[in-house]
Design brief:
95 residues; alpha+beta; three-stranded mixed β-sheet; 3 helices; globular
């Protein structure tokens, strides 16, 4: 099985940091769950909050046992956010 990469995730400087982080989050979530995912972005005082709407029966997969999966996703996004000098958070909502 071949894995393909899209250029904007690999560090291309032509895309905005917000777009890169949203695409990264979308990529990770699409590999965890099946079904529609809606990602809304809210900005306030240099802080980006991604509100992720996920089907009710899939929320447990994203949160994980003891919150380990969602914390791992947050940590990966924080790595990218530190590089772009922004703060980021993820909030999971049932669709």
């Amino acid at each position: 099985m071949a894995i393909t990469r899209r250029g904007f995730i690999s560090g291309s400087r032509t895309c905005s940091p917000k777009l890169i982080m949203q695409d990264l989050l979308s990529y990770m979530l699409n590999n965890i769950i099946e079904g529609p995912i809606e990602i809304n972005e809210e900005n306030s005082d240099g802080f980006i909050v991604y509100k992720v709407s996920i089907p009710k029966d899939q929320v447990g997969l994203v949160i994980g046992k003891g919150g380990k999966t969602i914390n791992a996703l947050k940590n990966i996004l924080k790595i990218r956010a530190i590089r772009d000098n922004v703060r980021v958070d993820i909030q999971v909502e049932e669709a």
